[in-house]
Amino acid sequence: MECEGDKTYDEPGSCPVCNMDLVPVEKEIALASDEISETSIFNLTSTWTDQNGEDLQLEELKGDVLVMVMIYTSCKAACPRLVADMRNIEERLPKNAKDNLKLVFVSIDPKTDTPERLKAFAEENVMDKAPWLFLRSSEDNTREFAAVMAVNYKKISPLDFSHSNIISVFNKRGEMMFQQEGLGVNSDATVKHIEEAIASR
User: Fold this and answer.
1) Which residue positions form the known binding site for Cu cation?
2) Which of 6, 27, 38, 48 could staple 135 via S-S, CB 3.0–4.6 A?
3) Is 136 exposed, middle or buried (0-12, 13-18, 19+ CB in 10 A)?
4) Which residues make up each annotated binding site?
5) What total number of domains does the chain contain?
6) Is 26 part of any domain?
7) What span, in angstroms and rounded, lies between the C-alpha atoms of 71 and 165?
């Protein structure tokens, strides 16, 4: 029997029509667009410095799809391949997609990769304009970020690191959607996930 249809009340009591007791109704609350989920990298409160010497927190990147990879600029082996893979991904995306996209390189060698060095590296690779972004932070913050990205790295000589070769895609809320692992691998799935993330609200 319907007394007052779907009407609800904020206070406990009984129905004014049939006197039946009112019972609480649980509703699933959707995450507001400006809220951050538990799995978002925007929960990291570390401060980073970009290639222009500007400080930022990752949460400031909210609203953009992020394609992120960890490298170091003095690397002569894997990192140039990762840079090429990122460039390949960027070239495969339509131009209008890049308005809500950031392609981010995060240094695993902050001691060497100063903002000045990152700026020079960006210019050398013709990546000194949007959507490219280069970041560095303290060693502790870098380790914390690497753990979130599932990237392992280890210093093996004064100038060299061994490290995972992983490109990660994050949606506009900072939640990881996909990871591409390896060098020179087929990027079809990566591009597909980026396009889906850009198209979503």
Assistant:
1) 75, 79
2) 48
3) buried
4) 75, 79
5) 1
6) no
7) 9
